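user: can you give me the structure for this one chain? tokens are fine.
assistant: on it. calling the predictor now.
[tool input]
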Amino acid sequence: MYKFVLRRLLLTIPVLIGAVFLVFAIMSMTPGDPGTLILGMTADKADIAKLNAEFGYDKPFFIRFANYIKDIVFHFDFGDSYRTRTPVFTEIFARFPHTFKLALASICLSSVLGIFLGILSAVRQYSFIDSFFTIIAMFSASMPGFWLGLMLMLFFSLKLGWLPSNGVETWKHFVLPTITLSMGGTAGLLRLTRSTMLETIRQDYIRTARSKGASERIVIYEHALKNALLPVITSLGMNFGASLGGAIIIETVFGMPGLGTHIVTAIRQKDVPVVLASTLLLAVLFCLIMLAVDILYAFIDPRIKSKYAK
């Protein structure tokens, strides 16, 4: 197990370098430069060139990329923001807790609803409940997140006045964004759980357990669910990682000062260090989440644990 974890951690290094290189290249290919965006189009050309030279933006692409990697590896320096001239992680860590709370709340809600409703649909296959939840899942999966957020905001904030429409001051500010962000994940988990449960409950060992007189509750939750949860756990890990980086639209709709809105602002102003550091943080978290999912497999399926031990 320890060798497996170490090997996975070492494999994340080229993944992170590739992610940083890709974002670095995209930011370099976009039109404009930091000096012009900060000082304005009417600023003196000499002042713009001086500011770009101060940022090191006047150097060739590969030299800038090599210097960035060198500063990270040897000095653990991710640079300063072009706009505020403060270390990039000072601003990121001030905003990241809001994004993490939103992603965690949405994945908890989607996992509870998606798994429970998926099991219920599989157990009562072709019934009215199964058809109803399948239709709801298809409708939820096709619903745009920004449209759902606006509709919830109009109804619960503007019409009823029950919940606030923006901000992050109290737990009430997270209710509408959490519901909006979790709808797509709930629909996907419901369909995945239903399909895996239907495949599992048709296996021979399930029929054997029933023939021995085990109750239907024991058969479903003790025998079938553990084997059916493996692909569901993978989907949960991917959804959680995607929620951390994919909450940009939801944060924008609800005016939340999270990491997503911070990245969007940095992209518009070509604040390259902020974009790179944010991307690197999200990539690291995604790799760690998927590693945790693989380790969790070993506690669910003894066959996988024995494979890791070998």
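assistant: here you go. The mean pLDDT is 82. Residues 95-303 form a domain with the MetI-like fold fold (CATH 1.10.3720.10).
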